[in-house]
C-alpha cells in the first residue's frame, strides 16, 4: 500500500513549455484533488474529482487541465508554463467520510 | 466562502511544555476537520481527523477538540519534544474541498 504517489519530485521548466504532473493512489479513494502551496498564500485548490470521469475546478484553475479516466490516476497538465506557476504541488485523496491523504509533493520551477 | 484562521502564527516553547494551537473557521456547516503536520520542504502528514459529530479525538500525546457552534478547534500537544518542531495546519473539510489555515510554526527548544 503505497498511498498517494507523485512524480516527479522536482522539475524545472522553461516558460511556454508544457508538462504533466502525475498522481496515483492505491487506496480506491473516490475523491482526488490538486493543491498548490505558495509562501504567504497557503494551500489552494486547483482541480478536484469525485470519481472517474468527473472533474471540476477549484479556486485557482487557470492554466491547468485535469482528467480522471481511472479511479487510481489524476494527472495535472500545465498547458503553457508561466513563472507564476512556480510552486509546490500536492495531490491528495480520500474516501467519503474519512480524512485526506497527501502525496509528498512536486516542486516546480518555471524560468 | 470558508475562512480558516490559525493563532498564533508562530510559537517557541521549552521542551516539556504543553502546546496549545488554535484554529477558527467561519462556516459551521462542515463535514470534518483535520490537523496536519508539515516539516520544512516536506509533504503533509495527517495527525488527527475529527468527524463533525465528534467533540474530540486523541492520539498519543495529541488531543484535538471541535466546537462547531463557535467555529473553533484546538490542538493540544502534551509534554512537547524538539521533534515536535514543525508547522501545524488546520483544515476544514467541506465534502470535496479542504480549506486550510495559514499554519502555526512551532519551535521546541531543547
What layout of secondary structure does this protein have?
The complex is a heterodimer of chains A (111) and B (110).
Chain A: E1 4-7, E2 10-13, E3 19-25, E4 31-38, E5 42-51, E6 54-57, E7 64-66, E8 76-78, E9 87-94, E10 101-102, E11 106-110
Parallel strand pairs in A: 2-11
Antiparallel strand pairs in A: 1-3, 3-8, 4-5, 4-9, 5-6, 7-8, 9-10, 9-11
Chain B: E1 4-7, E2 10-14, E3 19-25, E4 32-38, E5 44-51, E6 56-59, E7 62-67, E8 72-77, E9 86-94, E10 97-100, E11 104-109
Parallel strand pairs in B: 2-11
Antiparallel strand pairs in B: 1-3, 3-8, 4-5, 4-9, 6-7, 7-8, 9-10, 9-11
Please give a structural write-up.
- The complex is a heterodimer of chains A (111) and B (110).
- Chain A has 111 residues and is mainly beta.
- Chain A has strands spanning 4-7, 10-13, 19-25, 31-38, 42-51, 54-57, 64-66, 76-78, 87-94, 101-102, 106-110.
- Chain A is built from no helices and eleven strands.
- In chain A, β4 (31-38) and β5 (42-51) form a beta hairpin.
- Chain B has 110 residues and is mainly β.
- In chain B, the strands form two sheets. In chain B, strands 2, 4, 5, 9, 10 and 11 form a six-stranded mixed β-sheet that branches. A five-stranded antiparallel β-sheet of chain B has the order 1-3-8-7-6, with no helix packed on it.
- Chain B is globular and about 40 Å long.
- The model of chain B has no long low-confidence stretch (mean pLDDT 95).
- Chain A binds chain B through residues 31, 33, 35, 42-43, 45, 48, 50, 56, 58, 90, 92, 96-105, and chain B through 32, 34, 36, 42-46, 49, 51, 89, 91, 93, 95-98, 100-103.
Quick gist of this model?
Chain A has strands spanning 4-7, 10-13, 19-25, 31-38, 42-51, 54-57, 64-66, 76-78, 87-94, 101-102, 106-110.
Name the structural class of chain B: mainly beta
Sheet-strand content of chain A, in percent, reads over 45%
The oligomerization state is heterodimer
- How would you classify the helix and strand content of chain A by structural class? mainly beta
Low-confidence stretches of chain A: none
The tally of beta strands of chain A, per DSSP, is 11
State mean pLDDT of chain A (0 to 100 scale): 96
Overall helicity of chain A = under 10%
Q: Whole-Å distance between the termini of chain B?
A: 41 Å
Order of helical and strand elements of chain B: EEEEEEEEEEE
Count of discrete alpha- or pi-helical segments spanning 4 or more residues of chain A: 0
* Biggest beta sheet attributes of chain A: 7 strands, mixed
| Biggest sheet details of chain B | 6 strands, mixed
The proportion of residues in beta strands of chain B is over 45%
Task: Return residue spans of chain B where pLDDT drops below 50 for at least 5 consecutive residues.
Answer: none
> Which chains share the greatest interface?
A-B, 22 and 21 residues
Rounded to an integer in angstroms, the radius of gyration calculated over CA atoms of chain A is: 13 Å
- State the share of residues found in helices of chain B, binned by percent: under 10%
Amino acid at each position: 500500500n503505497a498511498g498517494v504517489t507523485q512524480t516527479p519530485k522536482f522539475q524545472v521548466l522553461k516558460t511556454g513549455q508544457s508538462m504533466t504532473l502525475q498522481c496515483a493512489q492505491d487506496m480506491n479513494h473516490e475523491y482526488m484533488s490538486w493543491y498548490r502551496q505558495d509562501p504567504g498564500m497557503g494551500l489552494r485548490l486547483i482541480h478536484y474529482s469525485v470519481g472517474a470521469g468527473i472533474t471540476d475546478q477549484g479556486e485557482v484553475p487557470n492554466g491547468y487541465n485535469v482528467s480522471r479516466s481511472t479511479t487510481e490516476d489524476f494527472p495535472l497538465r500545465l498547458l503553457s508554463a508561466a513563472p507564476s506557476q512556480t510552486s509546490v504541488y500536492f495531490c491528495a485523496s480520500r474516501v467519503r467520510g474519512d480524512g485526506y491523504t497527501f502525496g509528498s509533493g512536486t516542486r516546480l520551477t518555471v524560468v | 466562502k470558508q475562512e480558516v484562521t490559525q493563532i498564533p502564527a508562530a510559537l517557541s516553547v521549552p521542551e516539556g511544555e504543553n502546546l496549545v494551537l488554535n484554529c477558527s473557521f467561519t462556516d459551521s456547516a462542515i463535514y470534518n476537520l483535520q490537523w496536519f503536520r508539515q516539516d520544512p520542504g516536506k509533504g503533509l502528514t495527517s495527525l488527527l481527523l475529527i468527524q463533525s459529530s465528534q467533540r474530540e479525538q486523541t492520539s498519543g500525546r495529541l488531543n484535538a477538540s471541535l466546537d462547531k457552534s463557535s467555529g473553533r478547534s484546538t490542538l493540544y500537544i502534551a509534554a512537547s519534544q524538539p521533534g515536535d518542531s514543525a508547522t501545524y495546519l488546520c483544515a476544514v473539510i467541506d465534502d470535496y474541498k479542504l480549506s486550510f489555515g495559514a499554519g502555526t510554526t512551532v519551535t521546541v527548544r531543547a
